[in-house]
Amino acid sequence: MGIDNPQSSQSAEPPRIYLVGGAVRDRLLGLPVVDRDWVVVGATQEDMVARGFEPLPGDFPVFRHPETGEEYALARRETKTGSGYHGFSVETGPDVTLEEDLARRDLTINAMAEDEQGNIIDPFNGREDLELGLLRHVTPAWVEDPVRMLRIARFAARFAPWGFRVAHGTHGLMKKMVASGELAHLQGARVRQEMEKALMTDRPWRFFQVLHACGALEQLFPVLARGLPQEAHDGDDQAAPWQVLSRAVEADAALPLRLVGILQYAVDANHPAEQLSAWLALDRSTSALLREWLDLRARLESASFRNADDWLDLLPLFRQRGEALEQLLSLSMPELAADFLPRLEMARQAAGRVRGEELRQQGWEGRALGEELRRRRKEALTSALENTT
Ligand code: CTP
Predict the structure, then answer these.
(1) Which of 51, 215, 282, 318 supports an S-S bond with 277, CB 3.0-4.6 Å?
(2) How far apart are CA 308 and CA 295, in angstroms?
(3) Coil, strand, or helix at residue 32?
(4) Whose CA is nearest to atom 27 of ligand 1?
(5) How far apart are CA 208 and CA 195, in angstroms?
(6) Half-sphere exposure of 117 (CA within 13 A, CB side)
(7) Checking phi first, is residue 167 left (phi over 0); if not, alpha (psi -120 to 50) or beta?
(8) pLDDT at residue 9, rounded to an integer
(9) Does ligand 1 lie within 6 Å of residue 145's CB atom?
(10) Is the CB of 378 under 6 A from ligand 1?
(11) Residue 246 CB: number of other CB atoms within 10 A?
């Protein structure tokens, strides 16, 4: 590692390096470790630079290892400086201990370290909580970072197969954070990032259930929260949004389908899709898919699709994201999809047989061409519909 070279060390003791956070947790759980984060105790920023580490931009001293590219953070401590939220300061320095660094972390299972000999340092009993399947805060300072609300819900989803749940005292802090209004400081893009990670787990509904149980969902996605049973416990898997997510997991559906699958329940006349898309900073294609899916859903509720005009009005909707819309239909309304999708295919083929190019060759152009196209397609659809009923 080269970091404990005494020649360039400006502090008396050589720095000590620990693997921390998710990597320790995941290894103990027997999961593959993707990212490794390190903490360095007993070093100064100058020590790190002298050893060839590259300082990274940001609020805290974090460095990139010249060979592995992994991140090494100087140990830091958080000290309470006043009352209320954000009433604390962050200090780094060679005197900050590993325990102090671990104490500022969110959950006990994330507050373990491993030294270079493979010993686990675990001042908050994270290992026991891993075995008990408990998501438990490290200190009451947990409430000061609203991102932690999203993280705990995400871990509840990710570790649901192991039966993980929120510890009682931590649930109390979650309610406290909700009551404090701190969630209003969350950026929509951050909410989306954590939600996306949760959506790609095998139990994505747990993310929303955990947020609902403490009242956070009501603040983040009021429409979704209102449509759910008051008590959001494990047994409430019958709620429509959870069923959609469960079908999405079964179908191994891509992220945009999972996003739209759940967000369709988070909009209403007072909370339009455009507003939600903007807040979450959805990419253009996903926000278009949400809009188009809501459009399709509304049309399916209001039209019977027994006449050619209904189909002629509907088909253009499938032009760009037809496949995704069909998948959303299967995920959201499987029974209706079983009846509707074969008819859609039939309508598409019937309309598709009348080609604009042929009309052009016959001398049609401009507006008249458009009208003739629609007239002939209507004819084709009408006869196709007659043949199927
Ligand atoms: N951490 C925290 N509070 C946050 C973000 C991070 O206490 N709001 C701490 C946790 O100790 C966490 C570590 O920083 O384990 C690293 O954070 P990160 O890499 O974002 O998450 P991981 O816990 O490693 O989880 P993941 O598997 O999702 O990367």
Answers:
(1) 282
(2) 19
(3) coil
(4) 22
(5) 9
(6) 2
(7) beta
(8) 44
(9) yes
(10) no
(11) 16
Q: Contacts from 352-355 at CB under 8 Å and sequence distance 24+?
A: 353/380, 354/380
CA of 113 relative to ligand 1 center, distance in Å: 13
Tokens 């990212």: give the residue. Answer: 35
pLDDT of residue 7: 42
Cα dihedral 203→204→207→209 (10° resolution): -70
Q: State in Å: Cα 19 to ligand 1 middle.
A: 12
C-alpha of residue 370 to centroid of ligand 1, in Å: 57
Residue nearest to atom 18 of ligand 1 (CA): 22
pLDDT of residue 2: 40
Pocket test for ligand 1, best of 110, 112, 149, 170 (most atoms within 8 A of CB): 110
**Is residue 144 in contact with ligand 1, taking CB distance under 6 Å?**
no
The model's pLDDT over 85-117, given as tens digits with 9 standing for 90+, comes to 566 788 999 999 999 999 999 999 999 999 999
The HSE-up count of residue 11 (CA atoms within 13 Å, CB side) is: 19
pLDDT digits (tens, 9 = 90+) for 136-190: 999 999 998 999 999 999 999 999 999 999 999 999 999 999 999 999 999 999 9
Residue 146 Cβ < 6 Å to ligand 1 = no
27 CA from centroid of ligand 1 (Å)? 14
pLDDT at 86: 65
CA pair distance 20, 10, nearest whole angstrom: 24
| Closest atom, ligand 1, to C-alpha of 102 | 11
Q: Residue 319 class from Cβ within 10 Å (0-12 exposed, 13-18 middle, 19+ buried)?
A: exposed
- pLDDT recorded at residue 89: 84
The residues with which 74 forms a beta bridge, in sequence order, are: 40
Please identify every stretch of the chain with a pLDDT value under 70, giving residue numbers as ranges. 1-12, 82-87, 230-237, 389
Q: What does the pLDDT read at residue 237?
A: 67
DSSP state of 108: G
Q: Report the distance separating Cα 142 and Cα 182, nearest Å.
A: 12
Residue by residue, DSSP assigns 188-238 as HHHHHHHHHHHHTSS-THHHHHHHHHTTHHHHH-HHHHHTS-SS--TT-TT
Query: Of 155, 45, 162, 81, which Cα lies nearest the Cα of 111?
Result: 155
